[in-house]
Amino acid sequence: MAPSRSRSSTRIPPCIPKRQLPPGYSDSLLFLCARRIVAHHPLPILPALPAHLYPILFQAAFLDGRPLVLRDLVAAWPFPVLNFQRLVGRRELLRDHPCKLCVQAVILAVVAQLRWVLGILACGCRLRVLDVTGVPDDPAGRAPDGMSVWSGTVALAKACVEVSKHQREFQRRGSKRHKGRSGAATAAAAPQPPGVDVHADLFVNGTSYGILREALQTGAAGPLRLKCREFQAEKLSLAGIVSLLESLDPSCVRRVDLRFRNLGLTGLSVILPHLSRFPELRSLKLQYSNVDVRRPTPESAIGIRCLAGQLGMLPSLRELNLGSSRLSGNLRQILCDLQAPLESLELAFCSLVPADLAFLSQSFHAPALKRLDLSGHDFSQGLLEPLRLLLEETSASLLHLDLMECRMADSHLDALLPTLRRCSRLRFLGLYGNSLSTAALKDLLQKTLELVDLHLVVYPFPVDCYKPEPPRRVPGSRRIYEEPMDGERLAAATAEISQLLANSGRTDLVWTYNPYGHGALDYFSL
Questions:
Q1: Helix, coil or strand: residue 86
Q2: Torsion angle in degrees (nearest 10) through CA of 77, 81, 86, 92
Q3: In terms of DSSP H, where are the helices of 77-148?
Q4: To bridge 465 with a disulfide, which of 222, 305, 490, 521 should be the other Cys (CB 3.0-4.6 Å)?
Q5: To which H or E segment does residue 428 belong?
C-alpha cells in the first residue's frame, strides 16, 4: 500500500464549474453515476473500485473539471496506458472542454508517482505510457482555463526535467550510502524504474526552446521521456532547429511543421538531411520558407536538385506543404524523386504555371490526392483548363479542395462545375475571396447537393453585395482593400442561401463566408 503523499504543493482548486456536456454523455446512467462519484474529493471508494470503472471516472472528472480527482485516479491508474483522446472521447470534446488545470493535474500526478517510485526503489507505478497527443489548441483569451499547445509543451518539458533532477539527486544520495563500493557496483546495485513514455505533440519557439531542449537531451534516458508525434517550430535559428530534430526519438515522429520565413533553398538544405532519420514521417510542412526559383540560375538548379533528393529520402511522406514559395515551372523537378504518391499537397500562393498543373495531372500523385490547396493562383487566365484537367484526375479520391483568392468569376466557376460534381467524395470546398455573384453561389449549392459527403463550403461575399464605391488602397501598402459591404444585400443573400439549404433537407451541410470559424480537415483525419 502506498504511503500518503502531501497534496499541498499542487495548489489546484478542488473543482471547476460544470460544463455543458454533449448528447450521449448526460443520458448515460453509468456516466451519471460517475459524475456523482467524482463530485466528492477525496474519493472514499477508490481503493475498492474495479479497474474497468477508471476510464468512465476519468471522463467524468475531466469533463466536469475536477483536477484533484484526476490526480488521484492517475496515481492509482491500473492500466499501462493512459490516452487522453481515447478516454475523453471525440476530439471535439477536448476542444470544447479545455481545462489547463485538468491537464496539469494529470502531469503532476505522473511526476509525483515517479518521484515516489524512485524514492522507495520500487516499481509500484503501473502506468508506462501517457498519451496527450491530439489535445487541441486553446488560444489565449478563448477560455480562462484553456491550455495552449505552447504552454502544454512547456509543462511537459518542465515535468521531464524535474523528474530527471530528482533521479540524479536520489542517485547521489544512494552513492553516499554505498560509499565503500565502487561506482560500477553501486550503479549495478541500484534498480532502475521502467519510467513513463509521454507521447505528445510538441510546439516550440524561441521562448520555450531552452526548456524543451533540456528535456529532450537530459530526459531521454530518464524516468519521464518525451516521445514526439508532431513537431512544430517557429522563430528559431537553423542551429536550434537542427539541435531539436537530432534530440527527438526517431521512431515516433509523423509530422514536422517548420514555420519560418525566408529559409530559402539554403536553409532547407541544412534542415532536410536531418529528417531522413524519421522512418514514419508522413507529413512535412514548409510554408513561408520563401523558396523563389522563378528566375533560374545555376545555384537555384543545384538547390532544386538537392531539395528533390532530400524529399526522396523520406519513404513514408504522404503530405507536403510548400505554401508561399515561388515555384514557377519547377514542380516536376521538386517532386521527381518521391518514392510514393502524395495524398495531401498544399501549394497556396506558389506562382504555379500551366506546366506545373499539367505535370500534376499526369503524375502518379493525382489519383491519390485527398487534399489539394491551390489558393492564391489566378484561374481567370491560362490556368483554368489545366486546373479542370487536374480535377478530372483527382475526382475519385479528392476530399478537400481549397481555391481561395483565385480571381474566379461566375464564368470560371461555371466551367469547373461539371468537374466539381464528379468529385463524389468531396467533403470541403473553399472558394473564399473569389468574385462570385449570389446567383452563381445559389447555382453551385443546388448542383452540389448530390455530393453526399460535402459538409462544409466556405464561399465569398457575393460581388453584388458590395456598395458601388472604388476599392481603397492603404497608403504605403500594396494591398487593395475591398469596397465597403452593403449589409442589407449581404443579409438578403445569406437568407436566400440558408433557405435553399433548409429546403434541401441537408442538415449536415454548412455554407459559411467565415474562413476562420471552422476547423480545417487535418490530413491524419482524412
A1: helix
A2: 90
A3: 84-88, 91-96, 100-120
A4: 490
A5: strand 428-430
CB 134 within 8 A of CB 88: no
What letter represents residue 456's amino acid? Answer: L
DSSP string, 319-346: EEE-TT-B-TT-HHHHHTT-SS--SEEE
Cβ atoms of 304 and 333 within 8 Å: the answer is yes
Phi first, then psi: give them for residue 473, nearest 5 degrees. -110, 130
Residue 186 confidence (pLDDT) above 80: no
- Retrieve residue 239's grid coordinates: 542551429
Which residues have CB under 8 Å from 518's CB, separation 6+?
456, 458, 510, 512
Q: What is the distance of C-alpha 187 from the center of its chain? A: 41
pLDDT beyond 90 at 348? yes
Q: What is the pLDDT of residues 12-63, one digit of tens each?
A: 444 444 445 554 554 588 889 999 999 988 887 787 889 999 999 999 999 8
Q: Residue ranges of the alpha helices (H) in 178-237?
A: 183-189, 209-218
> 511 - beta bridge partners?
457
First to last CA, the chain: 46
Higher pLDDT among residues 148 and 475, named by residue:
148
pLDDT: which is higher, 111 or 6: 111
| Predicted TM-score of the model (pTM) | 0.88
Determine the pLDDT at residue 482: 56
Joined together, the cell numbers standing for residue 37 give 462519484
User: Per this entry, what is the length of the chain?
Assistant: 526
Residue that has been written with the C-alpha cell 531539395 in this structure: 307
DSSP classification of residue 484: P
pLDDT of residue 3: 40
pLDDT in tens, 133-149: 987 765 544 444 557 88
Q: How far apart are CA 248 and CA 156, in angstroms?
A: 14
